[in-house]
């Protein structure tokens, strides 16, 4: 089990791993509050991918990865995941409306 340093590489490899064997793949998140570390792990019992961070801004990235996996698990491994990313961006733009001073 080697930690992958690059976030983009971790996401790409983990999606490929899930698509190759969706029935036995697992996605696990582990957070240790005392250390302030988040560890993400994707495995299919043969290959294990891990990513570790202690940066708070990485939480948004983790949420995007969760949405990708939710899409793959509910719609099937052959679905286009760019739809999930575009839908998420549209929702974030709608929530920004209404912030600030009233006029």
Automatic annotation (TrEMBL):
Alphabetical UniProt keywords: Cytoplasm, Ribonucleoprotein, RNA-binding, Signal recognition particle
Domain SRP9: 5-66
Record bears the keyword RNA-binding: yes
Chief location bin: cytoplasm
Residue ranges of the region described as Disordered: 81-103
The keyword tRNA processing is annotated on this UniProt entry: no
GO molecular function term, any single one: 7S RNA binding
GO CC annotation, single: cytosol
Cellular location(s): Cytoplasm
Record-level GO BP terms: negative regulation of translational elongation; SRP-dependent cotranslational protein targeting to membrane
InterPro entries: Signal_recog_particle_SRP9/14, SRP9, SRP9-like, SRP9_dom
UniProt record similarity statement: Belongs to the SRP9 family.
Job description of the protein: Component of the signal recognition particle (SRP) complex, a ribonucleoprotein complex that mediates the cotranslational targeting of secretory and membrane proteins to the endoplasmic reticulum (ER). SRP9 together with SRP14 and the Alu portion of the SRP RNA, constitutes the elongation arrest domain of SRP. The complex of SRP9 and SRP14 is required for SRP RNA binding.
Protein's UniProt name: Signal recognition particle 9 kDa protein
């Amino acid at each position: 089990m080697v930690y992958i340093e690059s976030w983009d590489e971790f996401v790409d490899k983990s999606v490929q791993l899930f698509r190759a064997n969706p029935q036995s793949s697992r996605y696990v998140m582990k957070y240790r509050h005392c250390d302030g570390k988040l560890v993400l792990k994707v495995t299919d019992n043969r290959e294990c991918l891990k990513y570790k961070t202690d940066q708070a801004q990485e939480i948004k990235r983790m949420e995007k990865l969760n949405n990708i996996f939710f899409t793959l698990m509910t719609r099937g491994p052959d679905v286009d995941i760019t739809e999930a990313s575009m839908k998420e961006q549209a929702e974030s733009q709608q929530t920004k409306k209404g912030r600030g001073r009233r006029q």
